[in-house]
Amino acid sequence: MSAAPGTVLAASFDEQVDSFFAPVSEFITSIVFFAVPLDFLGEGVELPLIVVWLVVAGFFFTIYLRGFQFRAFTHAIRLIRGHYDDPGNAGEVTHFQALATAVSGTVGLGNIAGVAVAISLGGPGATLWMIIAGLVGMCTKGVECTLGVKYRNVYPDGRVSGGPMYYLSRGLAEKGMGTLGKVLAVLFCIFTLGGAVGGGNMFQANQAFSQAQSVTGGDDGPLGGGAAGAIFGLVLALLVGAVIIGGIRSIARVTDKLVPFMAVFYVIACLTVVFANLSEVPQALWAIVSQAFTPEAGYGGIIGVLIQGFRRAAFSNEAGLGSAAIAHSAVKTDEPATEGHVAVLEPFIDTVVICTMTALAIVITGTYADESSAPGVQTTSAAFETVVSWFPIVLAVAVILFAYSTMLAWSYYGLKAATYLFGESMVVDRTWKSIFCLFVVIGASSALDAVIGFSDSMIFLMALPNILGLYLMAGVVKAELFGYRKRLANGELPTMAERRG
Amino acid sequence: MSSSILVGLDGSEASVRAADAGAEAARRHDLKLVLACVVPWSPYAITTAEDNERRSVEKAREVAAAHERVLDPVVDRLSIDGDLPVEGVVRHGHPAETLVRLAREHDAAWITVGRVGQSRVRTLLFGSTPSSLIQLSPVPVLVVP
Known about the structure:
The complex is a heterodimer. Helix content of chain A is 74%, strand content 2%. Chain A has a two-stranded antiparallel ribbon. In chain A, strands 3-4 form a two-stranded antiparallel sheet. Chain A is globular, with a radius of gyration of 22 Å. The N and C termini of chain A lie far apart (82 Å). Chain A contains 21 helices and 4 strands. The N terminus of chain A is likely disordered. The longest helix of chain A has 38 residues. Chain B has a single domain, classed as 3-Layer(aba) Sandwich (Rossmann fold). The relative contact order of chain B is 0.23. The model of chain B has no long low-confidence stretch (mean pLDDT 88). Classes of the chains: A mainly alpha, B alpha/beta. Chains A and B meet through helix 4, strand 4, helix 10 and helix 17 of A and helix 2, helix 3 and strand 3 of B.
C-alpha cells in the first residue's frame, strides 16, 4: 500500500527538522564536552572537562564546608515542617513550597530516561557514582540557594527575583569584581536560555513523545506516522502556551497537584518491581557496587562509568547549574542560610531516592542490557512491564506530566534570564514564551541523540559561570552558613513553639 | 476575664447573621467585637515558581479583596452607631485553626460563625469550618443558622 502524499510530505518534515538540528547539536556538543583522552587507562577512555568541573565543585564545597549537607539534614526537615515559621507571616512562600517548586522542576525525565541512559551505557556501576554525585551535589545546591536568597532582587510591587545572575553581579561587585560579575551573569543568562530550550524543553518533549508513541503501538500505532512527532509537539506546545502565554493557571494548578502524586506513585511502582524480585536484590546491589570499579559493560573503564553516573546525576538534580536557585529565591525568610539548608534535600530526593529507585528497577530486571532499542524511557518502561503488563501506560502518563511540569519550570527560568538580559517588558516576556513554545514542536520532532547532545551542552554550560561565582563567593557562603549554625547551636534561633514558651 | 467576641466572616449571608448576633452579644456584655475573615491557604500547597514570585503581590490583593468585599461593609455597618468597638482582621491559613488562634490572641469569650448548610457528601469530603471549630476551639462556639 502506498503512502498518501500528505504522509510523505509530513515524514520529510520530521526529517528536515532533525537534519537541520543534528549538525548544530553536534557542533555545540563537541565544544562543551571537550574530553581529555586517557589512553593510559584504556583505549577510548576520555574525560569530559565539564564533568570534572561539576564533580570537583561538589567535593570542594563538601570538604570546605565540612560535610555541611549531612549536618544540615535534620534542621532542613524541621524548617520545611514549619517549626521556624511565624504564623503571623503566613500567606507567603514557605520553605516547603520553595522546595516543592524546585523539586517539581528537577524531578522529571532525568530520573526515568537519564538513569536508563547512564546504566545502558555505563552498566549498573554507574548507579553508585550517580548516588555519590547526588550526595556531593547536595552541598553545591545548598551553597547556590543560600546565595540566591542573599542577593535576590525585591521589586517595588513585592515580587521577588533571584538566581545566579543576581548573586554573580551583586555578590562579586561586593568583592570588587563588578565587571567580572556582570560578564558571568550575562553568560549565565545566555546559557540558561539555551538550557531552557534544550533540556528544559526539547528533551522533555522528545521523551514525552517517545513514550506516548511506544504505548500506542510504536511505529505501527497512530503516533508512528510521519508528522506524528510534530503534531504531538504542537498539542504539547498549545498546552504549555495556554499556561505561560495565555495565563490559564488552572492547567498548571492541576499538574501541580498531579505531579507530586505521580512522583509518589512512581516510587511505589519502582518498589513493586523491587519487591516482586526480592531475591534478586542482593545480586543487583552487588552489581551496582562491584561494577562501579570493574565495569562489565566495557564503557572504557572505571572513568567511563563514573562519567556516565556523574553526568546523568548532574543532569537530573541540576546541582551546580544554578537553576534551582531561581526557584528557591522566592522563599520568605530573613536568613539566607535557612534556604541553603532546605535546598540540600533536593538532590537527595531527586538523585539519592528517586534515581536509585529507577536504577534498582532497571538493574534487577536486566532491561538495560537490551540493545534492540535506544536507551531512554523505554528501558525503564520495559523494566516495569516485567512485573505489571499495563504499567507502561501509567508510566507514559507520569512521563508526560513530569515533562509538562518541567517545561513550565524551565520556561520560568528562561524568562528570568531573558528579563535580566533585556529588561522587564511585555515584549521580552511574550517573545521568550513564543520561542519556547516553538521549540516544544522541534523537540518532539527531533531524534533523541541530537536533543540529548544539545540539551546536555547548554545545561552544562550554565555550570561554568555559576560554579566560578560559587568559588569566588565561597567565603561569603561559609560565613553565612556557619554563622547561622552557630546561632542555632547557641539557642539564638528558637522555634515558634519555644518562643511561645 | 474575656475581652472580645470573635466572629468568622466568609461573605455568606449566614456569616453576616453571625456578625449581627455577635454584635448584639458584645453590646450586652460590653465586649469588643472582632470580625475575622480567613483566606484559605496552606503552607504545604504545591505552587509554580511564577506563583511563588508573585505570592506577596497576590497576598496583598487577597487581603484587599477580603476587606473590600467581606469585612469592611460589615465593620462599617456595625460601627456606625459608635456604641460598639469593632475591629476587622484578615488572615491567611486554615479557617478553623486560624479562628482558634485569633480567639486566643484576642482573648475571645466565644467564637461565632454562620452555618452555610452544605450537603452531607460535601461535608464528608471537605469538612466544614463549624464542625472543625467545635473540635478545636478552647472556647465555646456559637453556630448561627
